[in-house]
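Design request, tokens follow.
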């Protein structure tokens, strides 16, 4: 199985969802919501944003994965993992905000940078003629279903 950028975003996004829901169930069961910000970012910045990136790849970006989509993927997921880890440690109370500042600030910048790269890729893709963006798929109907 060849891993494409959109599948990598999708698989990572669904893995964040499993972790985030697991944390949500733990918070509800323990009646301790102290990690609600970690839960929120795991699900929103992790799950939702990654799945949205996968959908953007499928719907609006060319089928070929160059180095830019892989770099965007690496920055986004490094950012999410560092951000969620930093938030978890912060709300755990073991480390101070000052100690975690480099992780939290750095991870925020990575997530934002990845978003700006996605914006740039979408704008760039709009300039490619539609016929060049998508390879026709042959499913026995002459490729008429390619979008
Ligand atoms: C198994 C499923 C889930 C469980 C058991 C769960 C549980 C919880 C709990 C206990 C809280 C803390 C509420 C509070 O203290 O105010 C919370 C907050 C939150 N959850 Fe979930 N959750 C689940 C799924 C989701 C999903 C799928 C999303 C988004 C895609 C989500 C987004 C949020 C957000 C944004 C908050 C923060 C709300 C706030 O306090 O401002 N949750 N969740
Ligand atoms: C650059 C990345 C981001 C940074 C630096 C950031 C920072 C923050 C901060 C400082 C808070 C307040 C936490 C608190 O109340 O103690 C917050 C809350 C929140 N953020 Fe983010 N955030 C980022 C990305 C996102 C994204 C991408 C989403 C959604 C798609 C999101 C959704 C939320 C939500 C729903 C809350 C309320 C959570 C709650 O009260 O439990 N954030 N964020």
């Amino acid at each position: 199985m060849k891993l494409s950028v959109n599948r990598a975003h999708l698989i990572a996004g669904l893995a964040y969802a499993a972790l985030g829901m697991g944390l949500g169930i733990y918070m509800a069961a323990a009646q301790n919501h102290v990690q609600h910000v970690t839960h929120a970012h795991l699900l929103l910045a992790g799950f939702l944003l990654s799945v949205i990136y996968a959908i953007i790849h499928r719907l609006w970006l060319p089928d070929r994965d160059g180095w830019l989509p892989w770099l965007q993927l690496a920055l986004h997921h490094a950012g999410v993992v560092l951000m969620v880890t930093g938030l978890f440690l912060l709300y755990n109370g073991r480390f101070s905000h000052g100690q975690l500042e480099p992780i939290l600030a750095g991870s925020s910048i990575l997530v934002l940078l990845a978003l700006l790269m996605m914006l740039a890729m979408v704008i760039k893709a709009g300039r490619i003629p539609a016929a060049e963006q998508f390879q026709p798929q042959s499913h026995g109907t002459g490729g008429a279903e390619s979008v």
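Comment from the thread starter after seeing the answer: thanks! The CA atoms of residues 90 and 96 lie 6 Å apart.
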